[in-house]
Write a structure and sequence with these properties.
- It is a single chain.
- By secondary structure, this protein is mostly beta strands.
- The protein contains three helices and twelve strands.
- Helix content is about 10%, strand content about 40%.
- The strands form two sheets. Strands 1-2-5-4-3-6 form a six-stranded antiparallel beta barrel. It has a six-stranded antiparallel beta barrel with strand order 7-8-11-10-9-12.
Length: about 200
């Protein structure tokens, strides 16, 4: 479980084939401090397991499904990624509950910079629309954000200067693909409504 509060921006240092998946090496900076084999770390919001540690470099294995259903399959050497260690019991929850399981991939449709702020609109799969609401929470590339408005196929967010500086969203361009995870509470509400018995 994560909070959606990115701790640092990491850099992909190597990618090697490990059929049917790949092994990713990430210079994780401060996130590597105290890391242990088996730890869960969110990379662009996708929960992966540390399999090797060499100094500040952490290595992860990403399976075929993970690579095809997230933007991790598009990473190349020197790509920047958002990193967050898993939530420890008793930690403050500054964002919202994020599971690290990506629901779909969206893309940046519009970007309006209003320095030092920015307003971004993302396209999303229409199947996620029932789980996205204005003033609700969503994780974009692992970043906990508040939705400004939600349409049937897109939503917008307003980014403060800190978010632009401390995450990869500061450099996202039109057309860039992002990992999306909707609020876990919204998933349960939608499921509950779908399972209601029909009126007699």
């Amino acid at each position: 479980m994560f909070t959606g509060l990115v701790e640092t921006i990491g850099t992909i240092t190597a990618i090697s084939d490990q059929p049917p998946g790949k092994r990713l090496s990430v210079d994780a900076g401060s996130v590597s401090q105290g890391a242990a084999i088996g730890d869960s770390i969110a990379i662009n919001g996708c929960c992966l397991t540390v399999v090797r540690i060499a100094g500040t470099t952490l290595e992860f294995e990403a399976g075929e499904e993970t690579l095809s259903r997230t933007n991790l399959g598009e990473l190349v050497v020197n790509s920047s990624v958002n990193l967050e260690r898993s939530l420890a019991v008793g930690d403050r929850l500054g964002g919202h509950y994020v599971t690290g399981h990506i629901d779909g991939v969206g893309s940046l449709l519009e970007r309006r910079d209003d320095p030092p702020w920015a307003h971004l609109r993302f396209e999303m799969p229409s199947r996620l629309a029932p789980q996205v609401a204005a003033k609700g929470s969503i994780a974009v590339d692992g970043i906990s954000l508040t939705v400004v408005d939600a349409l049937s196929d897109s939503f917008s967010v307003a980014l403060i200067p800190h978010t632009l500086d401390a995450t990869t969203l500061g450099k996202r361009k039109i057309g860039d693909r992002v990992n999306l995870e909707t609020d876990v509470l919204a998933k349960y509400v939608e499921r509950s409504l779908k399972m209601q018995p029909p009126e007699p």
